[in-house]
Amino acid sequence: MSKEKNTSTLAGQKLRIRILHQIILHEPNRIIPTKGGDRAYLVNEINKKLVSRGLNTIGVKTLELDIKAIKNGDFEEADHSLPLLEKGHLYDLRFDHESKRYKYHGHRIPYIPFLTEEEDHTIAFLMQILEEHKDLPVIKKLISESSTLFNKSFSDAKSRKSFVFKKPVYSNEKRGKKMIERAVELLGYIEKQQAIRFDYVECKNLKQFEGIGAKRMTFKAYPLCVRMHENLYYLTTICQKNPDKNPRNKFIIRNLRIDHIVDKSIKLIPNPKAPHLYETFVATDEWAKHEIKKQFDKAIGIWNMPKNAEEEIVHIRFYGWAANQLKVFDIHPSQVIIETNTDMDYVDVQFKFYTYSGHQIQGNPHRSFYKEGVAKGTWSPQDFPFSDLFHRYPEAAHILGKYINFMHVLK
What we know:
Elements: H1 13-26, H2 37-52, H3 60-72, E1 93-96, E2 101-104, H4 117-121, H5 123-132, H6 137-144, H7 146-150, H8 173-192, E3 196-201, H9 207-210, E4 216-229, E5 232-241, E6 252-257, E7 267-268, E8 270-271, E9 274-278, H10 283-289, H11 292-297, E10 310-319, H12 320-328, E11 336-341, E12 346-355, H13 368-376, H14 387-392, H15 394-400, E13 407-409
Antiparallel strand pairs: 1-2, 3-4, 3-7, 4-5, 5-6, 8-9, 10-12, 10-13, 11-12
Helix pairs in contact: 1-2, 1-3
C-alpha cells in the first residue's frame, strides 16, 4: 500500500517501534525468507499487525527509520542517563551478519513494552470495572479490540488476584439495558444541541412498576449532560414542565432519572419559524445563564440546590467505623473535622447543609408519613431519630443514611 498524500511515514511510529522490538527480542530464531532477508520478514510481520489495526502498511525505508529511532532512543521509555555508545547511539541494534538477523548487541537492551509490568498486573482490575459497564457501546468495543490496542486480549486477564466491589444487580435486566440505551440516545441530542419533548413518570410512588395509574408529566427540555450516580443515570436539563397546559411555566434546571422517561416518548420539536427543521439551542448559553457549573460545585450526588436555599451549619459526632471513614473520605464538600477523640473513638464534623423555606416549617407535609406512623403507634420517635434533620436537609439523608446508627447530632 503506497503512502497517502500529505501523510507522514513517521505517523504511528510509537506503535511500530513496540512491534519491531517485540519481534527482535522474542523471535531470535525467526525463519528468514530467501528473498529480502530479515528486512523483508520484519516489514511483512509489522504490516500484518498494522493491517489488523486498520493502519497503513510501511516499506523498508520506514523500517530503517524505526530502527534508527530505537538506536537513538527516540521513544518514551529510553534511558537517556546512560552514556552514549559508538556513533552516538543509545542502544546497539544492528544487522548481525552471522545469524543474518537484526538483534541487540551487548547487555544494553531497551525496555519498550506494550504494557508495563504494573499495567499488566492491573488489567484484571480494569476488566472488573469494565464488566460493570459492559452494555455501554464503547466498553464493548474496547474489550473486543484490546488485543489490537495493547497486543493482549483483556478477556484473557485472570481476575483471581484482584476484585472490585460489585455494583447492585438490576432486578430486571431489561430495565438496566433500556436505561443505557436511553442515555446513549439522549447523548445524541446533547451533542446536536436539539430541543426535545418527552413524557416522564413521577418518581415519588411505585405505580410505574405496576404499570397502572402512574402520574405522568410532559417536559420540553434542553438536554445538557448525562450524569451517573450510584448506578443510576440522570439527565441534567433546562426544562419546562407541562408546556401545553401552561406555556408560561419557567424553564428551570432539573435532574431527571433516565429510567423514568417513558419508552419511545422522546421527540424532536419542529422549529415554528422553519417547519422543515427542528428547534435547537445553544448549550454554552444555557450553562452560563443558569450558572450550572456553580450548581454542580455544591451539588450532593445529583441534588441541585435551588437559589433560594439557605445555608446552615450542622455539627455531627460520628463513632467507630463511621468516624474512621470520615477521617479518610470527604463525603461532603463543606466537611471540616473540628475534633478527634482517639480515647472514645469519635470525630466531630462540621457540615454546611442547604435547607428550603418549605422545610423550615415544622408542620410541612414532608413529615406527614412519619407523624402518621407515630400517631398510629406503628413507629416511635426512636425509630427515626434524625427525621427532622433529614427532612430539613434532604441531601443529608442521601449522604448520611448509612451512618444513622453511628452518629449523633450536636447542633
